[in-house]
# Entry
Amino acid sequence: MSVASGTNKVSSNGTADSANANSLRGTFAFTHQTGFGLQLDNSIDNQTVAILQSVKMRSSDLALHGFYRSNDYLVGLMHQTRTFKIGGINGQSITMPVDRTFSGFEGQYHFDNVTLYGQTASDRVNVYLNGITKGRTNFVEARYFFNSNLRADASYGESKLDNVNANSRVKTSSVGLEYKLDNSPFSFFGKYQDMRGTNLDTKRFLIGAQFNFGQGSLSDRNRSGASLNTIGADNMLLNQFN
# Structure
């Protein structure tokens, strides 16, 4: 389980402002160093968009991963659903009639102290009574382990939606660092994200802590634990309707 908090700077049409952002993620994995496994993720992302009259947006994700893992690689399938809630409008919180669904493939490969990880998934935005917008999301990440409990990562992802009424693209670059205390279940991390969208850009910095069940190292988790990512929040909805 992890929790993070930080700042969210959103800019659009020459206007920019910063506000708060936070996230919460819980993960359960049934996996071994080799063989078939499952991973289930539930994550919540909250942000305040100051330039849009301080609207508060929440996205909630549920992801299921099924995979085969060997000593050197992992290959698998994933399915993820995302729902949205918006608040701060006349003091009300509204569940939006929109959901977003991802289905695709993922994999990782280990090179000594470096791991490469990737996802590719179909991307469907379903707007109630207004049809479905289809697209694709791709993501790659490199993880470098300075030692078994100190990890750095860099990633790049791109989401694109296309139909007659809505065209939108978001490119997200991220860098992060995580350190786990020796002989302790707690680790601490920081992450910077730069989301460049068709109509709206977001720069986000988060710091947080994670509780790791069991006392294996970060390297152990990467090779035989909950090592798979959810498809992260990218402000695609704000880009599409801004």
